[in-house]
Amino acid sequence: MTRLRPPARYDDARLGSYVPQTESQAEARDKATRFVRLARVRYGRPSWMRLFQRDDGLRGGLYLVGPVGTGKTHLLASIYHALQSPEGGSKPVACAYTHSSALLRAVEPPDVYAQRVAEAARVLCLDEVELDDPAGEVRLIAVLRALRERGVTLAATSNAEPEKFVSANLGRDRLERFISEEFEKEYHVVFVGGDDFRQRLSKEGRAWVGEPEVARAAMRRAFEAAPDPKRWLAFDDLIRLTTEVERTRLTDDLARSRALFLDGIDVSDTDDALRLLRVADDLYGLPSPPTLYFTSATPPADWFDAEGRRGVEAAIAEKFTRTTSRLTALAEVEHV
Q1: What pTM did the predictor assign?
Q2: Cα–Cα distance for residue pair 157/68, rounded to 1 Å
Q3: Is residue 1 part of a domain?
Q4: Does residue 2 lie in a domain region?
Q5: Are residues 144 and 215 in the same domain?
Q6: In what order do the strands lie in the sheet with 61-65?
Q7: Which tens digits make up the pLDDT trace of 146-201?
Q8: Half-sphere exposure of residue 173, counting CA atoms within 13 Å on the CB side?
């Protein structure tokens, strides 16, 4: 298994550069620091000694959960970088870092996937655990169990608390028992609260929300003034590209532009929501994403909100808040 790294945006993320804004964020940083220390102790010992050790306090791992924009991915990437780097004479701890969507898309059975991870890493950093359906939960649970059996420790982030996974909403007893009993027993669940820090950042891009022709005219003026290379895409064309072009190739293609203009964002169903979510995640993960401009008839917060939705739709709407957070972090919204 190729050792996967955090997105390039987080190359400089370190525990020392994480500045807590709330008590829960300070606690999360302390828990992440403790996780690194305990992982160094656990995996610094010969393997035969680990067979006889008592509970070392690390358990199955660390699960950081909370709303969007509280720095959970920064902490996870910091854990990765801290364990990968020798410190105080200790040896590096082999880590793998991946997004939950990659775990859920993998074609191997859970035990084969877990074995592939275990052959390359002692710690798996799993970012943004997001579950849209019970089938995804079944796979995730099976992988977590298989990783634990193989001695791999988990550090994970999520916007969803375990008791709010899809299965809990659907009343699936077997999965609900895992969440309420086994998960909480095996992992340190740490809440990371606070406001969305992305909204405090300076925003290079611009968005226009309102009557379509007025918004489009405003964006057209910005497009004409923008330096090359630049790209204008109707939202329907962007959605079509996500069905025709492989995900990494599409991200690379969009990233060739210095400025990206998306006209008429209109999220009408879960398919649109998931496709826009993936594009936004991939662009946001770049160290220097294109300057973003977009138009929409409605504010981003209203595109696919959770009100009145149930089951899978509600779960997707919950994680879609990360998409609107990232898009509005890249572009200042103006109502026209």
Answers
A1: 0.75
A2: 11
A3: no
A4: no
A5: no
A6: 95-99, 123-127, 153-158, 61-65, 187-191
A7: 998 999 999 999 887 766 665 545 445 655 666 666 777 888 989 999 988 877 77
A8: 0
